[in-house]
Amino acid sequence: MYPVRESIRQILSELPEGVKLVAVSKFHPNEYIEAAYQEGQRVFGESREQELAKKVVSLPQDIEWHFIGHLQTNKVKYIVPYISMIEAVDSLKLLKEINKQAEKCNRDVDVLLELHLAKEETKSGFDLDECRALLESGEWRQLTHVHIRGLMMMASFVDDEKQIREEMMQASDFFDEVKEKYFHDDPLFCERSWGMSHDYQIAIECHSTMVRIGTSIFGPRVY
After folding, report:
1. Nearest C-alpha neighbor of 165 from the set 179, 155, 175
2. Which of 34, 62, 67, 206 has the most crowded CB, counting CB atoms within 10 A?
3. How far apart (Å, rounded) are the C-alpha atoms in residues 22 and 12?
4. Is the confidence at residue 25, as pLDDT, over 80?
5. Per-residue pLDDT tens over the stretch 58-104
6. What is the DSSP letter of 59?
7. pLDDT in tens, 154-163
8. Contact (CB, 8 A) for 153 and 194
């Protein structure tokens, strides 16, 4: 556990004011999360419903859980009772299901819209025109138990820093466009979630407000 405490302390000291750390704890045991918690970390990211459900009941109740992976609509009902944010909404169908299940629980859920700007076809998310079409339709405005708080994306997993920076700046510029057109009077639409262990320093330069870091904190995944 000691390396975890050292590494998260180091990363937290590097992050500028206004950049939130989501410690990606998926596939890592409770004691690793507890070590990060002892250093003051409160936001953790998970991507598997069953693993998350076990951690929620066995770890401190003031942890803010983010769901960061691809989320199937039939899994929404299991996580909505306790999730703080769903970071990767990639369809109107999913947005509606989150709202439906949140209403049943009488609570509100924050979400981020996922953009697909990377070159890899395996990544999910809206392309820019799809995202514009979703927002232009206005259907999301009728969803009273789900709140769009910003955008997220994953840059291409490459060594080319120029390409990573270009993709992240494209996302940042698009955020500005969306903010001005659809959320100019909503101060809570403010999150730009990009940057992981291998590229979070570039992400900070590209106006990220939320970085998702796992390996650099917890080491290789424990299966």
Report:
1. 155
2. 67
3. 11
4. yes
5. 999 999 999 998 999 999 999 999 999 999 999 999 999 999 999 99
6. S
7. 999 899 999 9
8. yes
